[in-house]
Amino acid sequence: MHGYILTNTIRPVLYIGMTNDLLRRLEEHSLGLGDAGKFTGRYQTNLLVYFEICPNPVPAIAREKQLKGWTRAKKDALITAFNPSWAAIAVSRTV
């Protein structure tokens, strides 16, 4: 399981999610960019800036809820500690 955070090029919004296949999920987000009815499409959040690996779904769901409850400043600090430049992270099948 992976918890992850997406943003867009100007970083005004963050999208927090979890999945059992990060590469597949990122591809799904990218395919939905034109769909204005979905958050990731509306805000063009297609840049992976943070991810973590969880051992199974129960802690992954708990962690997703925890992150969603954090302030923006705390989320920004987490991302910056993991990825100081907020560069888009490339994912391969091995992640």
CATH fold name:
GIY-YIG endonuclease
Question: Which structural class fits the helix and strand makeup?
Answer: alpha+beta
The CATH architecture name reads 3-Layer(aba) Sandwich
- What is the domain tally? 1
Helix fraction by DSSP (H/I, runs of at least 4): 40-55%
Biggest sheet character: 3 strands, antiparallel
C-alpha-based Rg, rounded: 13 Å
| C-alpha termini separation | 10 Å
The average pLDDT is 88
Please provide the count of β strands.
Answer: 3
Query: What is the fourth-level CATH superfamily?
Result: GIY-YIG endonuclease
Q: At the first level of CATH, what is the class?
A: Alpha Beta
Low-confidence stretches: none
- List the helices and strands in order: EEHHEHH
Total helices: the number is 4
Name the shape in a single word. globular
What share of the residues does DSSP label as strand, in percent?
Answer: 15-25%
Pfam family, one: GIY-YIG
Domain GIY-YIG: 1-77
Protein name: GIY-YIG nuclease family protein
Organism: Hymenobacter algoricola
Description:
By secondary structure, this protein is α+β, with helices and mostly antiparallel strands. The protein has a single domain, classed as GIY-YIG endonuclease (3-Layer(aba) Sandwich), CATH 3.40.1440. It has four helices and three strands; from the N terminus they run ββααβαα. A hairpin with a 7-residue loop joins strand 1 (2-7) and strand 2. The longest helix is centred in the middle third of the chain and has 13 residues, at 57-69.
